[in-house]
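Example record

One chain of 287 residues, shown exactly as stored in the release files.
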Amino acid sequence: MQRYYRLAGVCLLLLSFVFPTSAFSNDTRAVNSDKDQLVLGLLPFVSPERLDQRFAPLANYLSHRLDFDIAIETAPSFREFVERTAEAKRYDLLLTAPHLYYRAQREGGYRVVARVSGPPMQAFIVAPKTSQITSIADLSGRRLATPDSLALASLLTRELLAATSATLAANVALVETPTHNASLFSLHHGWTDAASLMGPIFRRIAPDAKAHLRVIAKTSTTPHMPVSVASWISAERASAFASVLIEMKNTPDGKDLLQHIGWQNFVPAQPQDYDFFDNFAAAIDFK
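Predicted structure tokens for this chain:
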């Protein structure tokens, strides 16, 4: 049986952040399709502070080009985000991980309108270059930090460990942290021996910090992050929202913003693009 632990101290530290920008919403529930402000739900895959720095400019960009304002909102944890998405109907618009969109589509009625363009998503497992961990087999008997257990990186990491060896999977202590940067934080402080995080997050690590890390394994790949709209959003608003996203690459401000976010651009997407996760659905424990 795989062991799973949580770093409570890291959770408390990171969840103590508050959002400093007015781009974040005080709204608590989606109300109707023609309100003046729509809420874009952002998966808490990094700390609230980093989400703010990275995506508040996107909310401002969209608000200036649409006939409605966009506020961004996240949640304290992946599970709370999933609950707010499918059950509380808190988000009008959604930027989430592909496997969580799969559930939002089937249980919450969200429909994808665009996705991030770029290489397929993949998790990297990293260890300090000074350690003797050079392959995934070296993780046996060691502690591996992961983001939230509902994170795509965690799902892909568990799949990789199981595919490598049932014995290995049973002998790696998975240490759950709330975000990708918390996973790295635990590795940096020696609380864990290795860390799992998504490729796009790894590529954004500062060069001087990345120079001390060794990639010891990469997981299988999945489609990139989808952007979706709730069932109560009109087709006209959904189309306008998608068009502004897709046209970002063709405007000077949009190009600068994409570079700031760290993405190439947005492209059209269809629900069937994410049927890939039919094979994963049974492995996801949302409780």
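Notes: The longest strand covers residues 213-222.
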